[in-house]
Every structure is written in C-alpha cells, then in structure tokens.
Design a protein that fits this description.
With 332 residues, the chain is α/β, with parallel strands linked by helices. The chain has helices at residues 2-17, 73-86, 101-104, 108-123, 136-150, 183-190, 206-219, 224-227, 242-250, 257-268, 272-277, 288-301, 315-319; strands at 26-34, 39-47, 60-62, 92-99, 129-133, 158-162, 167-171, 174-179, 233-239, 254-256, 304-309. A six-stranded mixed beta sheet has the order 8-7-6-9-11-10. A five-stranded mixed beta sheet has the order 3-2-1-4-5. A hairpin with a 4-residue loop joins strand 1 and strand 2 (39-47).
Amino acid sequence: MQRRISLLVFLLFVSCQLPFFSQRTTNVHLVIDAGSSGTRFCPYEVDEQCNHLDVSQNCFSVPASGGLADLKLEEINQVMNQGFQKLEGIKIEKAIILGTGGFRRLPDYKQKQQIDLIRSSAISRFPDTEVRVLTGKQEAQLAYLAMVAFRNGKTDHKILETGGATIQIAGWEWEPASAPAGLNAMRELSGPPTSCAEDTNPSPQRFQECQEALRKVLRAQPWFSAFFRNEEAESVYALGSSWKSIFALAGDSEISREDLRKQGTQICNSSVKDIVDAGVPEKFAPASCYLHSYQYVLASELKIHELKAGDGSWPPGAAISDFFSGCTLRAD
C-alpha cells in the first residue's frame, strides 16, 4: 500500500514537471517582421485560447544588406534559408510574413514583384506561409495589441512606435494612425539640418537648433495635421529599438518630456567619446543628438507628458491577432 502511494506521488510530481504530461494544447505562431532595415523571425507559443505563453520570447534577426522590400531573389533565399534553419524542430502552425513601411513606399508593381518573390521563396521552405503588407493603421493597431499582451490583457494605454520608415500611434481614445516620418525617413525629408548632422560640433545650442529645424520640416508635411492631433497624452508607451538608447541613458524605464529635452541638450553638447562613455554603442553615438531631437519633437507635437519603455514592437500583437486561425483580436 505504501509503495502504491509513493508511486502515485511520484507520478503526480513528474506530471507537474514535464511538458508532455500537460493537458494544455499549444501552437507556435511564427511572425516574420519584414521591416524597412532588416528581417526578424519571431516564433510565439500560444495556448488554445490564443494567449501568449511567453510574450517576451525573443525574436532573432537574419543578417542581410537591407529589408526584404529591397532585396533581390538570391538574398531573399538566403534570409529564408537561415531563418527557417534556426527554427528546425519547432512545430509551427503557420508563418506569416508582414511587410511594413519599406513595402508601403514601393510603387504597386514593384511591391507585387517583391511579394511574389518572397512568397515563392518562403513557401518552398515552409508551405503554410502567408505574405502580406501591413497598412499603417494595422501596424499601429498591432503595436497596441502587443502592449495588451505585455500588460496581461489591460487595454487602457497608448503607444507611440518609432520605426525606420514610419511612426505609429494607437490606443485608449487614440485612433490607430501612421505617418511616413520614421527615424530614417525623417532624415530624407529634412536633409538632415546642419545642426543635426553627425559631424556637427557639440554646443549648448545644438539640441535647440536641431529640434527646431526638424519641427519646421515636420509641420510642412501634408499629413501633419491629420496625424498630430490636438490631444493631450499623459503617459504613452514608447516602442521601437531607437528608444532603447534614450531609456538606457536615462537609467530608468520612464522619462518625462522635460527630462528628454534636458538629456537631449546634454547629448548634443557632448563629444562622441563622452556619449560612448555614457553607454551608447560607438556605432550609434554620432547620431545620438539627432535621435534625441527627433524623439523630442514627436513627443512634444503629440503633447505627451511622460514616456514609458514599451516591450518589443508589434510582432507579439500579430501573433494573437485574426491573422491566425482561432484568434479573434482584430488587426485593424
């Protein structure tokens, strides 16, 4: 009798420790972020109710000379090969490749051409792959859904996502919207101004001059008034890799707009060496003045009082959206 009880206890213990004893059904939704400057493979495990098991699961990037929107077939094949090879052994329910601002800026014929090349390459490696180009509104909504997942279902938040080609806003009392003024796109729109250029000497006035010049260019765009509405935003989650440097320098996961201005002023008055010594990777240090000026302009034009470090970007939202069977959260 004692042996039977011991065996029962042992089996109960093992069933709690080993995943194959679990009754919980899970699926892997693979989201491939075909961004304007690179490609990320993001496999997310979700349960049968389409909830993330681990929303913080890391994506991985595949090295290439640019984003899929600009690559030729040979390099597209290399990206797909490397990405799917790293995922061997994972039982993927479905893969979806989602193009963003880099695709939206292409002429229709070129966009279709690239999508056909990518679809053909991906399907030859994983048959259940779908390729789509996100609208700006969809990208904004998916970024909002990503924060819903990170906040365990809470919906009372706003997001600002800064990408290379576009910026997105969405959230509580904010209609999803996008504008072609991402970090790289704004450089093309603005020149950039001399005060923002990487080789400009540091000075106490540099930040003020740079952000004023960027603001002037931004306000001259035909879509400005539709995107930058006259609404106050007390607190907003900032998404996108370009924000990481700002929060790292602040030494906090939150920064007020006023503190962002002060930090930007200090950065623009610092040498590249001092910026590197402060913790910014040498590769990005020369552009740090431009980055702070640019993000400050966005925050002030959107009337944001405080920015919080958001987790990741839009792919976690895509993984639990209606792009996948059985998921009900709308992508638009």
